[in-house]
Structures are given as C-alpha cells and as structure tokens.
Amino acid sequence: MDHIKLLPDNIANQIAAGEVVQRPASIVKELLENAIDAGATAIKLITKEGGILLVQIIDNGSGMSVTDARMCWERHATSKISNADDLFKLKSFGFRGEALASIAAIAHVEMKTKRPEDEIGTLIKIEGSKVNEQSQIATPNGTIFSIRNLFYNVPARRNFLKSVPVEMRHIIDEFTRVAMAHHTIAMSLYHNDKDVFDLKPTTRANRIAELMCKKNTADFLSVSENHDLVIVNGFVGKPEVAKRTRGEQFLFVNNRFIKDAYLNHAISSAYDQLIAKDQFPMYALFLTIDPARIDVNIHPTKTEIKFDDERSIYALVKSAIRKALGQYNNMPELEFADKNVFNPVAFLNKEVVHTQSPDVKTNKSYNPFAAEQQWKNVQTSQWHKLFDTNIDQKESAHTFVSQASIEPNGLGLPLEIIEFEVMQVSNGCLATNRNGHFYIIDQRAAHERILFEKYSQNIVYRSATVQQLLFPRTIELSKTDYILAHDLLDDIKDLGFDVADFGTNCLIINGVPAETIKGSEKELLESLLENYKHNSASFAGDKRKALALSLAQNEAILRTRHLEKEEQIELINQLFKCETPATRPNGKPVFVEFTNQKITDLFQ
Q1: Closest to 46 measured CA to CA, from 182, 147, 183, 126
Q2: Is 108 helix (H, G, I), strand (E, B) or coil?
Q3: Cα–Cα dist 556/449, whole Å
Q4: 506-513 β-sheet, strand order
Q5: What distance in Å separates the CA atoms of residue 519 and residue 369, rounded to the nearest whole number?
Q6: Is the CB of residue 165 less than 8 Å from the CB of residue 487?
Q7: Do the bridges between strand 256-257 and strand 249-253 make them parallel or antiparallel, or are there none, so unpaired?
Q8: Which of 17, 385, 448, 549 is most buried, judged by most C-beta within 10 A?
Q9: Does any domain span residue 29?
Q10: Do the beta carbons of residue 265 and residue 298 sit within 8 Å?
Q11: Gap between the terminal Cα atoms of the chain
C-alpha cells in the first residue's frame, strides 16, 4: 500500500501561510510592498481590532488586468522574476509569488483593481483559497485589498495571536519601516476609524523625524559616504539623545528593511566611549549596493540578507558613522564676555579683588597625651592583650553581626540579625560560609531575584509605595512604545508608578516606586518598556511577571559596585529568604554551592 500522497492546493497553501503570514502585520508588510512595486504615490492602510478583523490597503498604483487579477492568487505566480538569475538583479520587494496565495488560504479576501487604460475594473472574492466571485466593477485606478477574519479556518493559529494593542504595535512597526524608506509617497494609517498617521510627501529627514515623533531634526547627524562597494546615507542621533530602548533603530538595504546583528554591532561600536553601555543610539541608515552582491532569498519574510563582502561593509558603515560623530562638535562654549568665567588679564583691570584670609580655629582643650595614657594603661594592667593575635584576625575575617533596624540601606532592603562570614571577591561575587556550606554568589543576580519577588508581590497585592515627584516629568514615546505603555498602564501603576496620558504619544510621570533611584524617572520608564519587550516572550503572556522582572533588571545593583559589609550580609540574608534563591527569573544560577565533601574531593 502506498503511503505518500500529494497534498491538495488549499492545504499546501495553509502550510505555506505559516511562514509568510505569522500575524496581521505580515499581511500589512506584503501588501504595502506590493503597492510600492505597483508604482503607487498614495497608500492608505485601514485596520480594525489590530488587523484581526480587517486589513485594508488602498493604493493608486498601476492596477491589474482581468487575467492578472485572477492569476496573482496562484502559488508562485509573479511578475518580478522569470528565471533564477533574476534573483540577483532584484529591484522590487516581492518576487516569490507566495504572499497572496498564502493570505487567501487563511482569510476572507476581496480585491478590486483597475488599470488607468481600462474603463472598468475587476472584483475578486476568495475564501480559503476558493474563488467565490469574479466580476466587473466600477472602481478607482489602482488596487484595493480587503483581508477579513484572519485565520478563520485555522483556529489554532488564531489562538496564538496576541492582544489588540500588541498586534497593532506590530502593524505600526511594519508601516513605519515602509514609510521611512519611501518619503516621497503619501501614506496614512487608520485604526478603528481613528487617525494614527497621515504622512505627506516630504524630505527624508522630515519623514524620519515625523515617524520618530521628533519635533525637529536638530537631534540628527547626517551620514553620507560613497564607496564603490556601498553607499551609506541617512541619519544617526547625537550621543546625548541615546535612549535605553532599541525602538528607534532602522537599517535599510536598497530601501528594504533588514535585521542584521553584525551591522548593528558596527553602528553601536562607532559610539564607543560616547554613550553608556546600557544606552542605544538612534539611527536610520540606508545602504545602496549592487543587487548582484547580496542575496535576499534567505527567508520568506525577506528581512535577512547575505553580503558577499560583509567585513568590508562593516568597516565602511562604522567609518561613515565615526566621521559624522567626529564632525559634530560637542565641546562646551565659554562666555568670555562674563568676567567671572574667564579673565586671564585681570591684573590689567583697575578693579581690586579683595581676598579674605581663612579663619583658623583651635581646640585649646585637646590633650594629645590622653591616648598615650590609655596605651600605658594597657601596657601595665592588661599587658597580655599585646600578644593576643585573635584581635587582628577577628577584624580581617569579616565576621559581622548586623544590627536590627527598620531603615533600609543602599539596597533598599531591611537589615536582619544574623551572623556569618562573608567577603566580596572580584567580578561582583560574594563568598560566604553558611551552615557548613560554601557559596559563591553573583551579587547582581541575587539582587535581581530579591527584587523580582518583591515587585511580583507588589503587583499582586497592589502594595507598592509611590514616591510622588515634586515636579512631574513628561516623556514622549514612539507610536509603538506609546501603545505598549497603554496596554500595560494598569500593571505599571501596580508596580508603584503614577503615570497618566499627556497628549499624543506623551505620558506624564507624577510618581515612581519609592525604592527606585530618583532623578532618572524618564530613563526608568524607558528601560522598563525596553526590558519588557525582551522578557514578555519568556513568561508566556504573563505581563505582570515580565514587568516585575523588567523593573528588577533595571534596579539591580551592578557587579562592579563595592558593597559594605553590612550590605553584603543583608543581601545574602534576603536572598535565602526568597522562594527560589538558587536561580534568577530567567533560570540562570544565582550561586554555586560547595559542600565540605565536594571541596575535599577537588583536591583528591
């Protein structure tokens, strides 16, 4: 009996859709790029419920004939290439011929299209790869795609979709990337009948500033470098506008947005010694390179590219940014008109500068021989203590007993009464001997575990203490971060933040958790959002744990920080009171434990 069968086209298309269409944002990306390939000068994107119910794209491009309108829904039907060699001459975004077939397999699709030379257009309706209607219709020049009820026939995939704000954030990301690379095209975005973007044709700098929510381009430094291998253009942010979030980083190759950790490292390394290690530069860079020297046929999403000379491109990109940063003069200016600032020839002025002699105060009751008398008492009456070597040994063994107190110390933790030996060794580790076991503890990991459990309880029981600010701080976010913050607003408040809306893309911070460092409220909230993006996937949608970890990571002490002995004891004592002291929230170890037997075995 034969076992191998040929899958029907509709099932094959559903399987292929898993690679091409991962979420509504995937549809937005593919259809926007198709509109640009069609020569559109105006594109409108309309979404409902994060694109789950509707993704509609209206363009004024070239449109399609009756035959093309039907053929474009077949797998591997494309107008971009005709043979394999064309893959290395690509000047269009699409070329696989998989996107429309994949979309039609998992949604209700309607397309209206018309060429300028035609008197009437074509209407196509498809459900689950099945064409239900093809007819003539009066429609404007261009194409209108309406994608409804995504994954209606694949409920398992639909269940994996996130909340509306999360899906909308991904849509805005895709819209921003396409709009940034095509500043001469008018583009607009509407969600649930509300205006999100309304972009007019403009210069590249203005388009970038508008998409990054910058009021002007003063924070940008122009990058321009022409080389036979690659042309590098675009803008990078001044060092002082670097943020603790990665959201404002865009890299394009031939106007195609790409993700490349290697080139991202080249950009970041150009800022070495100019920004802090936990900050990220803002940039929007556009690389122009011969299509024959790159391969974009790596992944169906087409966001990965292979270069034939990656090292040279790395060096050229880094050099171009270094040059832009070098031309930017960040030296402070002195106001020489102010004589109090700098006056090297003051002796020529007639004005006499009067100086006042310092007051010398003496303590006439001080007796320098009092200490000597005390030492003589030890010499005579307690002479045996001179030979007691245990005195110095006790001081150097670092055995301490912390005092009971309700006041927190530099770690924000209450002191406890406990006695044990502890010392701080290199690389931010503490060594201690407790109950016959020897531990080497990562001080940052330990503090992170303590804070994580504390913040988790604060969110659950809403017991966080808020420190109100004397002067509230406003923070302007990108569109995507603003939507993310809105989705998390209630949980952020439970962490101890007093945050509210303050206009378009702006939040106002009235208070912060009492235990956090004061004076950096804006950076604290930015870091919280950035860390959350990286932690949310680790907690399977548990926003509260992801937020608790995000704040703990931001507030945990550094490995380079020197701890006083009381702080060392306090940190260790609080660690072993945690529910799971041995591991960090991400599963990595907090300490290494050695029993006496294990230590003995190491020397056998």
Answers
A1: 147
A2: strand
A3: 9
A4: 466-476, 506-513, 498-501
A5: 49
A6: yes
A7: antiparallel
A8: 549
A9: yes
A10: no
A11: 64
For residue 406, name the pLDDT band (cuts at 50, 70, 90).
Answer: very low
**Residues contacting 245, CB < 8 A, separation 6+:** 280, 481, 526, 527, 529, 530
Same domain membership, residue 126 and residue 45 = yes
Q: Is residue 266 part of a domain?
A: yes
Within-domain flag for 382: no
> Of the candidates 139, 171, 201, which is a domain's last residue?
201
Q: How is residue 186 written in tokens?
A: 């008018």
The domain boundary residue, chosen from 327, 348, 378: 327
The token pair that represents 507 in the structure block: 């939040």
In the chain, how many domains are there?
3
The residue segments making up the domain with residue 280 are 205-327
Who's near 20: CB < 8 A, 6+ residues apart? 26, 30, 98, 99, 102, 103, 300, 301
* Helices marked H in 194-285: 204-211, 261-270
Cβ-count burial of 327 within 10 angstroms (0-12 exposed, 13-18 middle, 19+ buried)? exposed
C-alpha 124/C-alpha 596 separation (Å) is 77
Q: How do residues 139-178 score in pLDDT, each as one tens digit?
A: 999 999 999 999 988 888 888 888 888 899 899 999 999 9
Residues 6+ apart with CB under 8 A from 32: 43, 45, 57, 174, 175, 178
Report if residue 418 sits inside a domain: yes
Specify whether the backbone of 256 is left (phi greater than 0), alpha (psi in -120 to 50) or beta: beta
Kindly report, residue by residue over 336-367, the tens digit of the pLDDT.
Answer: 444 444 444 443 444 444 555 556 565 666 55
